[in-house]
């Protein structure tokens, strides 16, 4: 986009945002994409997330799973099998950050309820025959707790009955509500693409996990170079303007080029570098147990690169 055209677009968004008398979360978000200005350059505003996902709730699974090859919850589950598969006893306390329609609750419920015959979940696509073992009610106080900012997503997850409780909460608030050392597993499937800056979240996860507890999550990976330009926002084309680099206080220096640790992309989502995640894990005393490069989903037939992590809060 030419500079003058870009300035004109910015001006339109500035006018839409105006003096804030009538909030326009989408315009604020696009303005952050274009200018790198405001808090949305670091993390998506709650109102923005609510608006986008309330709108998507009814079609999310069909759109993402069936049409855009979304498989992060299943990829997380498979990565967990190598680190710690579910046991017959179950009884884990699990917190699912950004639970959406409840895919993780469905796939990870064995950790809470236990397995009866040792089979694992293998629901690769929506509607496919599942090999999930029959489960029973959660034993020994195990719980599957979900949280999400979108009321419609919260309702969807509640309807699924795979959760003990689903709260209308921001990820940080949900983590703060958990007692220190109480969680066996924290899950975050494709939610950090809206959280952006992850310092506070990792600190809270580390505090809430029990010793030996696991934190399994995904990111859209910010490549240092050669990453495909993204052309759509929230799975439908809206704007293809180039994102402004957000330069966090700590950045890596590679070949004399300052590389941001995370960035709000032109897609309207945030991507983080692998180096950023490794730095946060070290800072919050979480140990890496597994990491896998994955294709998060497709956008206009282009595969979007991401990464799955399984990490552990080790004993002292
Ligand atoms: C791409 S969806 C993924 C949903 C689900 N984890 C899955 O894999 O199917 C991201 C979800 O995170 C929620 N979300 C985004 N930012 C959040 C935040 N700061 N706190 C809580 N939920 C958030 C959105 O409302 C949305 O339901």
Could you explain the architecture of this structure?
The protein is an alpha/beta fold and 316 residues long. The chain has a single domain, classed as Vaccinia Virus protein VP39 (Rossmann fold). It contains 11 helices and 13 strands. The strands form 4 sheets. A 7-stranded mixed sheet has the order 3-2-1-4-5-13-12, with helices on both faces. It has a two-stranded antiparallel sheet with strand order 6-7. The protein has a two-stranded antiparallel sheet with strand order 8-9. β12 and β13 form a beta hairpin. It is globular, with a radius of gyration of 19 Å. About 14% of the residues have low confidence. Bound molecules: S-adenosylmethionine. The site of S-adenosylmethionine has 23 residues, from α3, α5, α6, β2 and α9.
Strand order of the largest sheet: 3-2-1-4-5-13-12
Given the C-alpha coordinates, what overall shape results? globular
Figure out the total of helices: 11
Mean pLDDT: 84
CATH first level:
Alpha Beta
Outline the biggest β-sheet: 7 strands, mixed
Write the element-wise H/E pattern from the N-terminal end onward.
HHHHHEHEHEHEHHEEEEEEEHEE
Query: Whole-Å distance between the termini?
Result: 53 Å
- Proper CATH architecture: 3-Layer(aba) Sandwich
CATH superfamily, please? Vaccinia Virus protein VP39
How much is the radius of gyration in Å?
A: 19 Å
**Structural class, judged by helices and strands?**
alpha/beta
Write the layout of secondary structure elements.
Blueprint: H1 3-17, H2 25-35, H3 46-56, H4 60-67, H5 72-83, E1 93-97, H6 103-113, E2 143-148, H7 151-160, E3 165-168, H8 171-177, E4 183-188, H9 192-195, H10 199-208, E5 209-220, E6 232-233, E7 236-237, E8 252-254, E9 257-259, E10 262-264, E11 270-272, H11 274-283, E12 287-299, E13 302-312
Parallel strand pairs: 1-2, 1-4, 2-3, 4-5
Antiparallel strand pairs: 5-13, 6-7, 8-9, 10-11, 12-13
Helix pairs in contact: 1-2, 8-10
The structure holds S-adenosylmethionine (SAM).
S-adenosylmethionine binds at residues 44, 49, 53, 72-73, 98-101, 103-104, 147-150, 153, 170-171, 189-191, 194-195.
């Amino acid at each position: 986009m030419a500079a003058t055209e870009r300035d004109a677009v910015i001006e339109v968004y500035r006018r839409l945002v105006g003096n804030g008398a009538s909030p326009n979360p989408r315009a604020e978000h696009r303005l952050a994409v274009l200018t790198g200005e405001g808090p949305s350059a670091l993390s998506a505003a709650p109102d923005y997330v609510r608006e986008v996902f309330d709108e998507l709730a009814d079609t999310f699974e069909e759109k993402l799973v069936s049409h855009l090859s979304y498989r992060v919850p299943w990829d997380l589950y498979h990565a967990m099998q190598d680190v710690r598969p579910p046991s017959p006893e179950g009884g884990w306390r699990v917190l699912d950050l950004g639970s959406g329609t409840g895919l993780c609750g469905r796939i990870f419920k064995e950790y809470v309820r236990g397995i009866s015959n040792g089979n694992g979940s293998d629901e690769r696509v929506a509607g496919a025959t599942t090999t999930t073992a029959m489960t029973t009610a959660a034993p020994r106080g195990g719980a599957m707790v979900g949280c999400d900012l979108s009321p419609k997503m919260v309702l969807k997850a509640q309807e699924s009955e795979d959760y003990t409780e689903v709260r209308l909460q921001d990820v940080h608030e949900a983590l703060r509500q958990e007692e220190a050392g109480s969680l066996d597993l924290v899950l975050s499937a494709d939610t950090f693409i809206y959280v952006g800056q992850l310092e506070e979240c990792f600190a809270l996860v580390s505090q809430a996990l029990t010793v030996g507890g696991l934190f399994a999550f995904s990111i859209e990976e910010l490549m240092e170079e050669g990453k495909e330009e993204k052309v759509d926002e929230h799975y439908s084309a809206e704007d293809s303007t180039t994102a402004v680099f957000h330069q966090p206080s700590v950045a890596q220096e590679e070949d004399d080029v300052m590389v941001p640790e995370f960035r709000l992309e032109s897609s309207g989502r945030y991507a983080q570098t692998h180096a950023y995640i490794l730095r946060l894990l070290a800072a919050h005393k979480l140990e890496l147990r597994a990491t896998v490069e994955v294709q998060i989903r497709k956008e206009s037939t282009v595969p979007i690169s991401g990464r799955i992590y399984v990490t552990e809060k080790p004993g002292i």
